Amino acid sequence: MADMSSLIAVVADIGGTNTRVAISRGRVVDTGSIRRYRNADHDGIASVLRMYLAETGAAPQAASVAMAGPVRDSRGTLTNLDWTIDREVVRSASKAGHVAVLNDLQAQGHALAHLGAGATEVLLPGLPASLQAAKLVVGVGTGMNVAPVFRLNGQTLVPPSEAGHITLPLQSQDELRLKDFIAAQHGQPGVEDILSGRGFERVYAWLCAERGGTPKDAGAIMDTLDSDLLAGEAVSIFTRMLGRVAGNLALIMLPFGGIYLCGGVTRHFAPHLLRAGFAEAFRDKGRFAEFMGQFPVHVVTDDFAALTGCAAHLVETLEQGA
């Protein structure tokens, strides 16, 4: 097995709004090298990578990008941005010898074993599990998605998914009215249409339509939690839906190694999750309520975890000779 601890790579995390780019050595990302680029200022990832490498003078041996959209055979189009990315695009822009293209939640999954101290916070303690136990990453930001994480024969396996577009698990007449409100403006809603930044705004807009009020953006909603009753209710609706969806996925995947909540929206909500009913919604599974207590739930506080995941995936793939 080759030693890739000194491998120099360019790694990128491509979101719907911004792209973060950095240089890594082995599995370690040089945090001082991280730069952020507004996607609106570029016509694709090739433009971003070329600008970054010109600005830094780096000459990477490998490149890995994580993108917020479905990836198949190392090719994909971002869900919320008209960029198509594949290995050849990345290879041409980076001049790197080895290239990987991942979904962004896959990159988060590859990062879990390599996050530093203080990169996660415990939300629900759960029970201890073996090192081989499955894990699950749940990401909420511009969009929403999940990725299961498995360890098998020394390799990390992170299958892709597009779980943000599954049907909403609705349980009340109020939630059905919320669904109809969203559907009237945006078509049949999926989980992402509530569990995302714009989804949170839609929840608040629905409450305004029902009770009177003026819709506002997510930041303004969070800023008025202490004075706006609708803002507090919107947080509770969002939180309960997140707990319910995470609990459903836990029963499907059985991630005894832990559930890891990540993404910018998750981090903004983290201080409010327990107060707003996450634990109750997560465990609300009838006779399986006690069973749900086995799953630890963590919040990933490292905003650059996907970059670490890109680096870790490159190293593991090359060390295995794939």
TrEMBL record:
The entry's keywords: Kinase, Transferase
Domain of life: Bacteria
Pfam family, any one: Glucokinase
Family statement drawn from the similarity comment of this UniProt entry: Belongs to the bacterial glucokinase family.
Name of protein: Glucokinase
Taxonomic source organism: Thalassococcus arenae
